[in-house]
């Protein structure tokens, strides 16, 4: 339906389009996160029926622990993808930060754990800021820039670590217990991941700079015309992504028994897949960090479920690939349908 309003500062009436009141159920059905949520529930139920131990207390805890690192990485990646960019270096950032965490505990055992978190997240933020600066200043596609920094950061980690590895015995018990202790049944590191999702989701919905990211992803040129500082916003998205990758690197060092030169290798594609499967449009401008988190849970649960069902690892990778293609196709079809409805609505108004 249409209505009239007045131009700011006076002037004649202007016809604007307003949305009809929609059915709450219809609104839920149109949620981008709904398909991946349904897929996750079906996957868990089917696996549980085939193997009841899958949802035992320890089984649920393992599922949460397996998803924790990926959730944090997917949230950061969602910020970047929404701006119509991508960061392929997150696995290398995680690996570099994880090894730095092990180094700090081995060489400075008296350093407070909170200080280790702060230093590691700062390192991740610096690495993310380098990506953001190169993308926004050099005006080179993020795919190319971050593919280069993927190898640069990985090379730095290889040169630094060499054959050195840090194991669980090299870290304080309190740090390792972050992945062991639970609160209301949730591992502490998983609660940290949930907190990250909530904070970033509130920021994206409530802050002007968060909403600007959607505008940039939808149409960067139009965003500039509206006065949005596109370069600054994209830079901050990369910086935030690096900071969250740094946080994931610290938690990785707590979660797993060892960190070394190869830590985080290959994770970048899984992170992008989690965000896309979770409803974050690869073309930018739509999606949510909550959806990216659910996508991360789905992908890690697929691996656990198929392992519990003794399915070959090849099929695990094939299913993830099918999910990525399905998510992109569904998003493209939905975009075309929305554009068609908009054109028809404009034709009726005329």
TrEMBL record:
It comes from the Bacteria. Keywords: Cell inner membrane, Cell membrane, Membrane, Transmembrane, Transmembrane helix, Transport. It is a multi-pass membrane protein. The chain crosses the membrane at residues 34-51, 63-82, 88-106, 113-138, 184-205, 234-253, 265-283, 290-308, 314-334. The keyword Protein biosynthesis does not apply. Part of the ABC transporter complex LsrABCD involved in autoinducer 2 (AI-2) import. Probably responsible for the translocation of the substrate across the membrane. Pfam families: BPD_transp_2. Its main location: membrane. GO terms for cellular component: plasma membrane. It is found in: Cell membrane. One of its GO terms (molecular function) is transmembrane transporter activity. This is Autoinducer 2 import system permease protein LsrC. The complex is composed of two ATP-binding proteins (LsrA), two transmembrane proteins (LsrC and LsrD) and a solute-binding protein (LsrB). The keyword Transmembrane applies. It comes from Plantibacter flavus.
